[in-house]
Amino acid sequence: MIRIDTIWLATEPMDMRAGTDTALARVVAVFGAAKPHCAYLFANRRANRMKVLVHDGVGIWLAARRLQQWRFFWPGARHGSEVKLDAEQLQALVLGLPWQRVGSGGVISVL
C-alpha cells in the first residue's frame, strides 16, 4: 500500500488531459513542492473528474476518478489555492459526498 500522510486539494481546475509530468509541474506551481507521502488532488472545471498525484518517497503515482452522474464537492478559489483534507474527508470526496461536513469540518460551534 502507498503511505499517505497529508492530503492536499487544489481549488483551481486542471486540464484532465495532463499526464504525470504536467500534473507534477502543477503540484510544484501550486504547492511549492511535491513532498514524500503526500497526495495532491485536482479537478476539472466541471468537477466531474479528479486526478490524484501521490509522491510515495520513491516515485510518482497518478490516478484518475470520474463520476458519471454527479459532481465532486469542490471548493472554489475563495478558500485559497489549496485545502488540507484528512483521510475521512478524502473518502467522502471520492464518493461524491459533501466532504466539508465530515470530520473536523462538521463541528458545530455556534448555536
Automatic annotation (TrEMBL):
InterPro entries: Transposase_IS66_Orf2 (IPR008878). It holds the Pfam family TnpB_IS66. NCBIfam families: IS66_TnpB. PANTHER family: BLR8292 PROTEIN, PTHR36455. This is IS66 family insertion sequence element accessory protein TnpB.
